[in-house]
Amino acid sequence: MDMQGAADHADGILDAVLKEIKPEVQWAHGPTSTGSCDVSRMRVVMTVVSEERRGSFLGVVDRFWRKSGYRIKAVNKDVDVPAIYAQTKDGFGASLSIGGKGQAFFEVDSPCVNESEVAESTTPPNGPAYEGVYPLPRPSVHSDFWSAGTP
Questions:
Q1: Does some domain include residue 118?
Q2: Which parts of the sequence are annotated with region: Disordered (predicted)?
């Protein structure tokens, strides 16, 4: 597998977990980064995930990754910045971390693969693309479910 193949596989992992989240959250592409033999893809959730709903959000992802055969490597139970770190059977690292204002970040990192050029993801975001904007803005999309102030 080369770096482009790894990036495509990472996109598939990200697509799958985001499809599992109901109701749907709006997301945009974060930066793609490459090392000497690895690649990383990121998706940034633009829907506000309230403090009261973060546990549910993390739970949906945790259950999906376990059901998909991923090994959960670590869970950060910090109230303000919780996170889950997992690994696929083929060595890709997957993480979900919650940042400021309830913004969720999904990232998938490849193992070392053959060096190649890496194109941007072809998966269209389900909201604004924010092309040329970095860093991305804080989450501002309201969800009656994910942004609610009740558990």
A1: no
A2: 117-151
